[in-house]
Amino acid sequence: MTYLSPLGYLLGLEGAALLRGLREGTADQAFVEARTAEIRGLLDTPELARAEGVTAVPGAIGTADVYQDWAAYYDEPGNQMIDIEQPVVRRILDGLPVGTALDAACGTGRHTAHLHRLGHRVTGVDASPEMLARARERLPDVDLREADLQRLPFPDDAVDTVVCALALTHVPDLAVVLAEFARVLRPGGHLVISDAHLMSSYLRPTLPRRPGPDGRPTLLTEYHRPLSAYLSAALPLGFQVRHCEEPRRPRHSPDPGAAPDALPTWMSWDLRRWCPEASAAALDGAPVVVIWHFQLGDDGGK
């Protein structure tokens, strides 16, 4: 069971802001005193003291349930993780030879569409029928299939490029999926993956979702990994690193007047408006995603 408290989250932001400021040399006396005073103020705020937290059950909701809900608005503007990730992935794809491509966990087909525009013979696969339905609306002439990442519907050595974007955080065994990518790639083929960054998972912890079968709030199980985990899974398969990038959240000036009049009724990122300066100091400029470009060796890792 995980207990998520509005006050606890705000105090965590304050602490992260202080620790990051000390580490990076930006925490002058005024900043530290401001954080200390704000922490006292938060502790003395009756509304926060009375606010009940949420006790959530980890693992009581599945990825399929979450993407069923996300499909309707996944492509809407304002998804900051996509806004940060997409330009980097596309820059890498733009430099690859045109050939046969697979968008693994294609979702609504955003990278599939880009590969198609570049001239690749592209296939998209995803385990979510709701996300695939959105992709088919966007790409009616592209081959889109429902399939699991651990059992791709392709023979060995079938594709030149594999893209897997923002999906591996839902995969418990990274090595199994990368081995499947290596299987379907031709020798010398390219693998481009993006994933949620481990640091981001600490600064923006997973929020509770709709009640599960027993009526209690749920937490989706996610697998956030250090960079070494990707190398440990990829290098034994014959993959070679061509590029690694950790795009960061843009820095902005906090709005001191952004605090809401009332607490949200559910654990929400709107809580950050209760301490905008600490929130900006903790979150801005921190890595959001990690993006890898691997190339399979000429022997195909065999």
Automatic annotation (TrEMBL):
Coiled-coil residue windows: none
GO molecular function: S-adenosylmethionine-dependent methyltransferase activity
GO biological process, one term: methylation
E.C. code: 2.1.1.-
InterPro entries according to UniProt: Methyltransf_11 (IPR013216), Methyltransf_Superfamily (IPR050508), SAM-dependent_MTases_sf (IPR029063)
SUPFAM superfamilies: S-adenosyl-L-methionine-dependent methyltransferases (SSF53335)
Methyltransferase type domain segment(s): 102-193
Top-rank taxon, per record: Bacteria
Gene3D superfamilies reported in the protein's UniProt record: Vaccinia Virus protein VP39
Keywords of the record: Methyltransferase, Transferase
PANTHER family named among the record's database cross-references: METHYLTRANSFERASE
The protein's name: Class I SAM-dependent methyltransferase
Lineage: Bacteria, Bacillati, Actinomycetota, Actinomycetes, Kitasatosporales
